């Protein structure tokens, strides 16, 4: 694969204005308010003494694939005409299938032409009915009101079963048999080859390491500023991206996706994007001690380190 070069301006970081102290404190107050065991004191009265910004990138590669397989299956025979093997059976990729919207996971089952035949239902021996599993063919079950004794309180005859100790089985209506679940009472099965088509969006992310102290796992729950999005049949690595580690990750992931998904499936389309995720490390002072919290993502989500005013809540 020949790689194109993508040129992105080095001043791209300027697309997200730095978080102000007022915005950081507002996010912190909202966070404290949302936590039932957190006092609002540190958030409202704490004084911000320092703010550091550690904006980072997230690269996402999506490869939309289509895979096909065939397997024998059955369904109740409805009396439709058959043309089993009167013509050549098409191979999986010769069958025309409507492709869904790109990058949406979907599965579709299709009856392969010229493969259908009819056989008697083995489950019910072609009778259309099977023994009731609740009463085991006895047509009745133990009365739940008198537990089979036939008598209730004060030795009176049970009004539910009239003293018989048993009642008509509700599952089979006292018939002892139920409609066969395999053939749905049709007695015959249509046996045919089913084509199973699966469309799947295979997604991998790479987040550039940053030294703020905030674990990368927290960034999975937030979004960033979309800097770049590219959709093609096959995308090229972002060799021209100013962040070297992201450029290397892009080249590796594009290569791995092509190798992994082109072997057993058909690649329909690929999509890659780059987000700039804002991260602010905020140091604040409360009651003569210093503490830290992080504000990250476009949503201004907060992660507090050792929040200094918590309580134990008991729900009664």
Automatic annotation (TrEMBL):
Range of residues in the leader sequence: none
Gene Ontology terms for molecular function: heat shock protein binding; unfolded protein binding
SUPFAM superfamilies: DnaJ/Hsp40 cysteine-rich domain
Superkingdom field: Eukaryota
The name this protein goes by in its record: Protein SSUH2 homolog
Species this chain originates from: Hemibagrus guttatus
């Amino acid at each position: 694969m020949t790689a194109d070069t993508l040129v992105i301006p080095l001043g791209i970081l300027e697309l997200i204005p730095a978080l102000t102290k007022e915005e950081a404190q507002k996010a912190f107050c909202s966070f404290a308010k949302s936590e039932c065991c957190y006092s609002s004191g540190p958030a409202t009265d704490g004084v911000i003494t320092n703010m550091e910004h550690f904006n980072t990138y997230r690269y996402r590669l999506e490869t939309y694939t289509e895979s096909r397989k065939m397997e024998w299956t059955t369904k109740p025979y409805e009396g439709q005409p058959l043309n089993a093997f009167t013509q050549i059976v098409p191979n999986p990729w010769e069958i025309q299938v409507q492709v869904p919207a790109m990058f949406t996971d979907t599965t579709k089952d299709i009856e392969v032409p010229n493969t259908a035949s009819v056989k008697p239902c083995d489950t019910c021996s072609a009778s259309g009915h099977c023994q009731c599993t609740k009463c085991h063919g006895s047509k009745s079950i133990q009365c739940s009101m008198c537990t089979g004794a036939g008598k209730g309180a004060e030795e009176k005859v049970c009004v539910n079963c009239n003293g018989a100790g048993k009642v008509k089985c509700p599952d089979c209506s006292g018939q002892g048999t139920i409609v066969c679940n395999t053939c749905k009472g049709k007695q015959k099965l249509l046996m045919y080859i089913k084509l199973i088509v699966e469309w799947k969006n295979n997604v991998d992310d790479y987040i550039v390491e940053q030294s703020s102290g905030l674990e990368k796992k927290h960034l999975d729950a937030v979004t960033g500023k979309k800097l770049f999005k590219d959709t093609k049949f096959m995308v090229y690595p972002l060799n021209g991206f100013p962040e070297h580690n992201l450029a290397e990750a892009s080249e590796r992931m594009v290569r791995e996706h092509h190798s992994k998904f082109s072997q057993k499936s058909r690649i329909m389309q690929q999509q890659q994007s780059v987000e700039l995720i804002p991260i602010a490390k905020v140091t604040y002072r409360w009651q003569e001690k210093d503490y830290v919290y992080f504000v990250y993502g476009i949503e201004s989500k907060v992660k507090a380190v050792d929040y200094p005013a918590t309580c134990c809540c008991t729900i009664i």
